[in-house]
């Protein structure tokens, strides 16, 4: 028998070394290298275990799917992101920055599910039951089928599950719960892995859906081991700016539905409210047309949202003009400015500072907003306002062509539903023709305003 040796291995990526290190040389994580007792030169064999009758393999056509059906949570925007509702036995991870409203959203979900006649157990590992009760009273999330518990020990939480027998379990948060079967403090990778794997195993065995709250790090990623995101079935990101009341829920991973949907919410004094029709949230309220503005129709999942793009062009004597953007990709704005200078005849943009921003704090990451950005910059450069009834969407190539975008018919239908009668899209042919058409529409709108004044 070979002499046992001590090996240190990273719990994140599996990198091993003969000496202990505070930081993994492979994944660059701190505090993940632990001592693993290994015996070299020994080949271990695993005995096969016969499966039980209930767990034996069956033909796929004989597998029942009733247990995997979506059950609505009572909040339409949250169900939209999940793919229709909560699936029995699913493990859902909701992450977000501190103070964005994760606990408020899940408390509202718990109240809606309890109001539907299903028992819910809300376990808070960060707040006392009195604090949760106070917030529930303020938001109106009170129901007899909603049970509260303030526990940080995993074994006690499992005992609460046996006693209450809920149909939905919410744990806030997974980084603050610890297990006696694992060493380390709560929040360390070993503890998070043990707590998450145990809760997920209980969810699968009892067909009990589990909602887990996850903290995020400074760079926005979920705290703890990456294994946590692989273990759960659904990973949702709760986003929002503290300066505004608007909140978004996006699905980064979903085994039961699409990952391109987005749910819109608004934080109010009475809690969180869903916004089923956010069409007017990203538009300005100015009655008079102002130069440097253009409306585009962005696509978030299967939802078309009108978004207003604003641009400001200011002459400068600096050798390097400023390019400041907010809500759009800086590299795409720089490319659009270059195309406007070379293909649309706006050759003086190199002598001006250009500022581009979106209304409402929304971020446009798709290329379908290129044409609206180009029209807004051209409108600001020429100081000619684009009429309110004009909307533009299309991708701009380096050759100055307007390329088609996905779901163009849906975008156009949403724009016409909101009253936009002039649509600039791929039919414009080139960015020069689109800019000239927008300027002609601006002149026609100005003439109508003058006729109405007299």
Automatic annotation (TrEMBL):
Domain of life: Bacteria
Chain ranges of the RecA family profile domain: 67-216
Chain location of the short sequence motif RadA KNRFG motif per the record: 253-257
GO CC list: cytosol
Keywords tagged on the record: ATP-binding, DNA damage, DNA repair, DNA-binding, Hydrolase, Metal-binding, Nucleotide-binding, Stress response, Zinc, Zinc-finger
Residues that coordinate or bind ATP: 96-103
Coiled coil ranges: none
UniProt remark on domains: The middle region has homology to RecA with ATPase motifs including the RadA KNRFG motif, while the C-terminus is homologous to Lon protease.
Protein name (record): DNA repair protein RadA
Organism of origin: Agromyces ramosus
Upper taxonomic lineage: Bacteria, Bacillati, Actinomycetota, Actinomycetes, Micrococcales
């Amino acid at each position: 028998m070979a002499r046992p040796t001590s090996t240190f291995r990273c719990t994140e990526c599996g990198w091993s070394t003969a000496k202990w290190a505070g930081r993994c040389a492979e994944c660059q994580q701190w505090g993940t290298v632990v001592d693993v007792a290994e015996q070299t030169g020994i080949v271990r064999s695993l005995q096969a275990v016969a499966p039980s009758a209930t767990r034996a393999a069956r033909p796929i056509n004989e597998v029942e799917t009733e247990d995997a059906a979506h059950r609505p949570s009572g909040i339409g925007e949250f169900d939209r992101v999940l793919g229709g509702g909560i699936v029995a036995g699913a493990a859902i991870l909701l992450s977000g920055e501190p103070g964005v409203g994760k606990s408020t959203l899940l408390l509202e979900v718990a109240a809606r599910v309890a109001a539907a006649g299903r028992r819910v157990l809300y376990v808070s590992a960060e707040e006392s039951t009195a604090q949760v009760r106070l917030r529930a009273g303020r938001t109106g999330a009170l129901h007899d089928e909603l049970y509260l518990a303030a526990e940080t020990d995993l074994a006690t939480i499992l005992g609460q599950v046996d006693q209450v027998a809920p149909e939905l379990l919410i744990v806030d948060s997974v980084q603050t719960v610890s297990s006696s079967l694992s060493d380390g403090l709560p929040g360390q990778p070993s503890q998070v892995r043990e707590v998450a794997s145990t809760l997920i195993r209980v969810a699968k065995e009892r067909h009990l859906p589990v909602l887990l709250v996850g903290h995020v790090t400074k760079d926005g990623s979920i705290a703890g081991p990456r294994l946590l995101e692989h273990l759960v079935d659904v990973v949702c990101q709760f986003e929002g700016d503290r300066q505004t009341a608007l909140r978004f829920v996006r699905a980064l991973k979903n085994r039961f539905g699409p990952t391109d949907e987005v749910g819109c919410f608004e934080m109010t004094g009475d809690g969180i409210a869903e916004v089923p029709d956010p069409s007017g949230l990203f538009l300005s309220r100015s009655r008079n047309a102002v130069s440097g503005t253009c409306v585009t129709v962005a696509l978030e999942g299967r939802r078309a949202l009108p978004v207003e793009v604003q641009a400001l062009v200011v002459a400068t004597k600096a050798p390097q003009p400023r390019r400041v953007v907010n809500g759009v990709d800086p590299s795409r704005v720089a490319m659009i400015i270059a195309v406007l200078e070379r293909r649309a005849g706006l050759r003086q943009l190199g002598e001006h500072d250009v500022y581009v921003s979106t209304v409402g704090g929304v971020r446009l990451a798709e290329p379908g907003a290129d044409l609206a950005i180009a029209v807004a910059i051209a409108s600001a450069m020429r100081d000619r306002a684009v009429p309110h009834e004009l909307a533009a969407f299309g991708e701009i190539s380096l050759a100055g062509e307007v390329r088609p975008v996905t779901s163009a018919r849906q975008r156009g239908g949403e724009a016409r539903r909101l009253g936009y009668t002039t649509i600039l899209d791929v039919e414009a042919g080139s960015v020069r023709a689109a800019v000239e058409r927008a300027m002609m529409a601006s002149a026609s709108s100005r003439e109508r305003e003058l006729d109405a004044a007299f």
